[in-house]
Design brief:
Distance between the termini: 38 Å
Number of strands: 9
Number of helices: 2
Radius of gyration: 17 Å
Shape: globular
Structural class: alpha+beta
Largest sheet: 6 strands, antiparallel
Strand content: 25-35%
Length: 150
């Protein structure tokens, strides 16, 4: 699907059909139905083809987003908080300080955002992730243990 997405994106950009590209990307992100008619999840277009869908709206608590990130140059940033990333599709490049990681679907990362960091596609294709951002000091708590073979 990533190859097809890349071909559609390149075709739309070359033909000046950015609005069509945005509509295609919005459909691909597919904000989930909530079952509550009062809740309307709306994709927001970001930097050059990236799309973000806020899945929660709890001020001061962990925020959850589904994101499709388009290729871009790394620019390391710092800010207060803690982040968790889960790769749904594509390949994610994560830079934390001097360390450089590549994550694939099903892999996760968590880190303190007070350390210089950047994440985005590891190649020229988009990457789809679940992105959780919480206040400084919040960390994931693993309450399960891996099964031991019998």
């Amino acid at each position: 699907m990533a190859v097809v997405t890349q071909q559609i994106c390149e075709s739309c950009k070359m033909e000046g059909r950015e609005a069509e590209l945005a509509e295609i990307l919005d459909g691909m992100v597919a904000a989930p139905a909530t079952g509550d008619p009062r809740v309307h999840l709306k994709p927001h277009r970001r930097h050059r083809g990236s799309v973000v869908v806020p899945l929660t709206q709890y001020p001061g608590r962990v925020q959850v987003f589904k994101q499709v990130l388009a290729p871009r140059q790394p620019k390391l940033v710092t800010h207060p908080g803690y982040e968790w990333l889960y790769v749904l599709a594509g390949t994610l490049r994560l830079i934390i300080g001097e360390r450089d990681f590549t994550l694939r679907p099903g892999e996760v990362a968590e880190f303190d955002t007070g350390e210089r960091h950047w994440f985005g596609p590891a190649d020229t294709n988009t990457v789809e992730i679940l992105h959780l951002f919480g206040p400084h000091g919040d960390q994931a708590v693993n309450r399960t243990e891996p099964s031991t073979p019998t």
